[in-house]
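Blackboard transcription, Thursday session:
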Amino acid sequence: MQNDIKKNFTIKRLLNTILTVSIFVIAISLSNPLVVVAADSEPEVVLKKGVNSIVEVLNDNKFSDPSQKNARKDILFNIAETFFDFNEFSRGALGQNWRRFSNVQQSEFSKHFARLMANTYIAKIDDENFKDLKITYTKTEIIDATKSGIERAEISTEVFHNNVVTPVHYRMMKKSGGSWKIYDVKIEGVSLVGNYREQYRTRFNDPPEKIIQEIKDKVAQ
Amino acid sequence: MILKKYTKLYLPILYALTVYFIIASSSLFADENKSSTGTLNELQSSDELYADDDLYAGDELYGDEYTKKADQAVPDPFYWFNYAMFSFNDKLYFWVLKPVAQGYKFITPAPLRNGLKNFFHNALFPVRFVNNILQGRGYQAGSEVKSFVINTVGGGLGFATPAQYVFGIKTHNEDLGQTFGRYSVKEGFYLVLPLVGSSTLRDSIGSVGDFFLNPATYIESAELAAGVTALDKVNAVSFRIGDYETLKSAALDPYVALRDAYIQMRRKQVKE
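(Written on the board underneath:)
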């Protein structure tokens, strides 16, 4: 009898605990944060179109032969140029050094810098691991326009490949012609432009020719 | 035996005292570093001459966010030590870690590697849970509990992740370094640790605290503990072979690139 009561009591306590925990869990589940659903905005359309055509080329069997590797690289670079603004990339990367460059030097730098970006990152995605590449667009955010009124947007994506999820954010700007272009990419929160900017920050004593030559050598490697 | 008992008791207390000391003196550190680093600092101060608003007129896209103001930059007073450790870790990666991870990847089927990754992630539940609580993120802490319970019970100790696949629950990698950051503790200074890699004063102290919350710490046999930690590391690297190479080959100065990438990444994690 005594034992039975004891047993009953333990079971009751156990049930009570389970009930409390489940209420806790349910309460948490109900307090889900709001899910934002937005229609595709203009910059998002541009980005999706560009990314899709890159993925298309990557998955195209026409280029799967190793001898086609360079041809594919050029095609990918040409696509990238349509929605990446490498001139802005270069300006941002050089930071305060940019204005020490003459116009000719600026475009010279941009040309090679674009190649460096493309070589590195195309080589990276042009890889077996990226066969199962999956991209989800999670959020589009309009960021404040700059002082002179350049409209900007930040588009968040998640790239799923090789069983790893990598957050990639694209920052886009509206060019004076009305088209949207990417001016910075953040991978896992690390801004590409910001990263180069930090590397060039202490280089204000180096002549522009030296900086351009350095990039050229890097591309040739 | 008695000693062991005492150390177990005193370590957390000692740790808490250290943290208190560091937080209290973190402003001191910042000031000290501004005046103590010779040549680099001179460079930076003449750099500041250029950081005049006018000069940035054509650079407004990036100017506001990426211009390093003096109070935003993380000082690097132990540059030479850090640089040596960076070179050491670099060699360690290319000579040991990468070949081992590649061999491991070759002989280990992908589902097993994935399962192990999930298992180790699940086992670090205490770290995420406690830090979510410390940061006042109740909803996220709840997600951690749900995920841990579902994956441990329904996913075979966390090898499978039904909480993510079936219920779509997200987990959030919060650690003590981020918690300190959330409490407005500055990074202190940049630090490269052997084997561990990039860190800061704040994050190093944080990882000591997280060490007490890591179940692997409480494995009795030292050999087993070392084995488990090594397996975790090699398994994790097997998913990321090539990432470090990309960063390094794209960089003009790999040391600075890595330092900046680490600081940027951590600041984003603290913010989120």
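Lecturer's comment: The first strand of chain B starts at residue 190 and ends at 193.
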